Amino acid sequence: TPLLAIETSCDDTACAILDANGTVLSEALLSQESHAALGGVVPEIAARAHLDILPNLVDLTLERAGLTLGDIAHFAATTGPGLIGGLIVGSNYAKGLALSQGKPFIGINHIEGHILTPRLPSALADEGITLSFPYLAMLVSGGHCQCVSVEETGHYRRLGGTIDDSAGEAFDKVAKMLGLGWPGGPALEKLATEGDDTAYSLPRPLKGRDGCDFSFSGLKTAVSRLIEPYGKAALSHRVAADLAASFQRAVADVMADRAEHALALAPQATALVVAGGVAANRTLRARLESVAERHAIPFLAPPLRLCTDNAVMIGWAALERLAQGERPNDITIAPRPRWPLSERQPYRSSSVE
Ligand code: ATP
Ligand code: FE
């Protein structure tokens, strides 16, 4: 009884088919390249691209699994949060498929997808670990930065989040100041390996503060002040590398501190999990790993392709709900650009038996 899932909340168009126990039968993902030249995701362009790509991508995913539409038992799609144009395209397409086949449609919260993915049977297979509740999930991506205690499927306690930029945005903006391309995170990390991370003293916003909120805009401003004196002249490689390393260290410091505070708020956590594109950063990983070690719990990060946006995570979140005995049919729910995890959609109200 396979399930087909679609993800279109940002600039990746993705489709995946999973069987009932979470084995990935096939997947296809296209990252829209056009945004790089524009220095960021342009919502209108992204929505049109999703519309262009999606039909072929779904066909390709079915073909790769050796299945036809008639074999699919459930259709799932991201219905928020995210860029509304893409959400409308993806969820309407999935709803259309569901209606055409007389099968249920399941609307999934994108963040729920990210934070449940480490439980996908293949996610941590290398570590030989199956993740049980409750655990602490730090979601650090281009669009999100928050800390959630995952108590069980559908029961999430948000411990804190960013009060300004996401961690990914901070990396991208600082990378831009340093003259690196977009997305900036990977380029900044690479440059930082050549720099001295103690060269500049930068602020650690909210470090030591109670709770688990994040703030990055002050850090970003501090970097821009340091760059100001150079005017329009290109930074020397040395200065840029030192700034990159110092910035990255400041972010990792703050993250480690926030993780400590989060674990104080969720002392029963059985593991510390990171997800989101920024989880690729090795300095950050190392720091979080040492926090987990101090608390004698494992530090887990799914492989990067499952950390960044993908459709497997949407399919998995749908399967988790089905496994709980829910029989959702969300055909009438509308996509939401903002959708806090605490609001668990009017799932049941629209249930049909
Ligand atoms: P979201 O997942 O929140 O909808 P998104 O699609 O922008 O948004 P991801 O694809 O998960 O997010 O992550 C992209 C972000 O991760 C970018 O901001 C990018 O700069 C950052 N990133 C990627 N690799 C690294 C790295 N090695 N170090 C730091 N940041 C990184
Ligand atoms: Fe995402």
TrEMBL record:
Polar residues compositional bias, start-end: 347-353
Residues reported in the UniProt entry to bind Fe cation: 110, 114, 309
Job of this protein: Required for the formation of a threonylcarbamoyl group on adenosine at position 37 (t(6)A37) in tRNAs that read codons beginning with adenine. Is involved in the transfer of the threonylcarbamoyl moiety of threonylcarbamoyl-AMP (TC-AMP) to the N6 group of A37, together with TsaE and TsaB. TsaD likely plays a direct catalytic role in this reaction.
Reactions that this protein is recorded to catalyse: L-threonylcarbamoyladenylate + adenosine(37) in tRNA = N(6)-L-threonylcarbamoyladenosine(37) in tRNA + AMP + H(+)
Cofactor(s) for this UniProt protein: Fe(2+)
Cofactor notes: Binds 1 Fe(2+) ion per subunit.
EC number: 2.3.1.234
Gcp-like domain ranges (all copies): 23-316
A matching Pfam family: TsaD
NCBIfam families per the UniProt record, alphabetical: gcp_kae1, T6A_TsaD_YgjD
Organism annotation: Saccharibacter floricola DSM 15669
Subcellular localization, as worded in the UniProt entry: Cytoplasm
Record-listed substrate binding positions: 139-143, 172, 185, 189, 281
UniProt region (Disordered), positions on chain: 330-353
Matching PANTHER family: TRNA N6-ADENOSINE THREONYLCARBAMOYLTRANSFERASE (PTHR11735), TRNA N6-ADENOSINE THREONYLCARBAMOYLTRANSFERASE, MITOCHONDRIAL (PTHR11735:SF6)
Protein name: tRNA N6-adenosine threonylcarbamoyltransferase
Keywords from the UniProt entry: Acyltransferase, Cytoplasm, Iron, Metal-binding, Transferase, tRNA processing
CDD domains, sorted: ASKHA_NBD_TsaD_bac
Family to which this protein belongs: Belongs to the KAE1 / TsaD family.
Domain of life: Bacteria
Predominant location category: cytoplasm
Gene from which this protein is expressed: tsaD
